[in-house]
Each structure stands twice: as C-alpha cells, then as structure tokens.
Amino acid sequence: MDPDKINREDAIGLRRRIHASCFDGYQKFGSGRLVCQSNGEWKYDILCEEAGWTQFGNHIYRLFADQKTWMGAKVCIL
C-alpha cells in the first residue's frame, strides 16, 4: 500500500487513531479507547448519553431537583 495514496478513511491500522465523539447534546462516558481484536471486531467501552448525566465510578446517574424515596423513585420508572 502506498502511504501517499491513502485516504483518511483507509488509514485504520496505519499508525492512526480513531476518535469517537457523540452528537450535539450528548456527552461521552468511558475511556474512549477502541481496540481492534484479532477477529476484526472492535471492542470499546464508550457510551453516549444525553447531557445532564454524571459518571461516578463505573455507573452513570442523572440528578433531579425533586427528592423521592427509593420506593417512590422506583414506582416512577415502572
């Protein structure tokens, strides 16, 4: 392969990086790292959520102004 004739979309695996981003109004969680596995599939831990979510450790939460008990909140999502 001639490096002078490589298009941007052809450059995967040729010392290039893949940049993952989210659409406007969404924010990215996770490491942002994509790994090409030996079977040709990509492994990643990227998640795009609507703006307003917060990550704490390995979990993502959305904070609300109104306070509810655990049972009260559970009823709202069912």
UniProtKB/TrEMBL annotation:
CDD domains: CCP. Coiled coil: none annotated. The keyword Disulfide bond applies. It comes from the Eukaryota. The keyword Amino-acid biosynthesis does not apply. It holds the Pfam family Sushi. This is Uncharacterized protein. It comes from Magallana gigas.
